[in-house]
Specification:
By secondary structure, the protein is an alpha/beta fold. The protein has six helices and eleven strands. The strands form two sheets. It has a six-stranded antiparallel beta sheet with strand order 3-4-5-2-1-6, with helices on both faces. The protein has a five-stranded parallel beta sheet with strand order 9-8-7-10-11, with helices on both faces. A hairpin with a 3-residue loop joins strand 4 and strand 5. InterPro entries: FAD-bd_FR_type (IPR017927), FNR_nucleotide-bd (IPR039261), Riboflavin_synthase-like_b-brl (IPR017938), SIP_FAD-bd (IPR013113), SIP_fam (IPR039374), SIP_rossman_dom (IPR007037). This is Siderophore-interacting protein. It comes from Sphaerisporangium aureirubrum.
């Protein structure tokens, strides 16, 4: 057993099913997953590579772990992840394709700072389909009475997850010009005069475009914008 195996939590795949044309829900359960400290929006790092594989050694161990937001969590030891499947799939997507009930799983404890800020005047969500699992968990955590605004880009309507507070979000469909499409949709939102808290996640360039818009055009303080880049074109280790 490797050092990595000793520090990771153990579980097993309970269910694995498509929830959109490009997304698989993977339910993982185990006694070691009970009573975790989890805040909606946080992620785990999932072991998807074999440490004994020559390919893993050649890649400098980049292909051992992949990061996934927790979609749902039950303190009895059950958590759901959403794994994106896409052309030219990387280690994470390939792992999910082969996952079946009983597949052994090792993963880290929940971590991350993309979480809901308490007592914000309002909340703004902006991202693409890779942010949907995190956004849904966070939307369910927004206190009742606090307004929500948002813009999300997905390839088509059937790529949407059934998010909480769905009516509060603007959906943009299509694969081309993701950065322009997302920042354009955010620019068109009728937001209150003062800043709230923004949660921006997905493709790195689109995230930076939304950040620049909020800070330069709307005058938001940088501290009011929480950014998490989940992927970038051509960059490994972000699937």
């Amino acid at each position: 057993m490797s050092v990595l195996d000793r520090v990771l939590l153990a579980g097993a795949v309970e269910e694995c099913e498509p929830v959109t044309p490009s997304m698989r829900r993977v339910r993982i359960s185990g006694t070691g997953l009970r009573d975790l400290d989890w805040v909606p929006g946080q992620h785990v790092r999932l072991k998807v590579g074999d440490l004994l594989s020559p390919q893993v050694w050649l890649s400098g161990f980049r292909d051992v772990l992949r990061t996934y937001s927790i979609w749902h969590y039950d303190r009895g030891g059950i958590l759901d992840l959403c794994v994106l499947d896409h052309p030219g799939a990387g280690p994470g997507a390939l792992w999910a394709r082969g996952a079946v009930p009983g597949t052994k799983v090792l993963l880290t404890r929940p971590d991350g700072r993309l979480v809901v800020r308490r007592e914000s005047p309002y909340h703004l969500f902006a991202g693409d389909e890779t942010a949907l699992a995190a956004f849904d968990a966070m939307l369910r955590a927004v206190p009742a009475g606090e307004p929500v605004y948002g813009a999300v880009t997905v390839p088509a309507a059937d790529h949407r997850l059934p998010l909480a507070r769905l009516a509060d979000l603007t959906w943009v469909y299509g694969d081309g010009g993701a950065s322009e499409a997302l920042v354009g949709a955010v620019r068109e939102l009728s937001l209150p005069a003062g800043p709230g808290t923004a949660y921006v996640a997905g493709e790195a360039r689109a995230c930076q475009a939304v950040l620049r818009h909020l800070v330069r055009e709307r005058g938001w303080p940088r501290a009011a914008v929480r950014v998490k880049a989940f992927w970038a074109p051509g960059k490994r280790g972000m699937d």
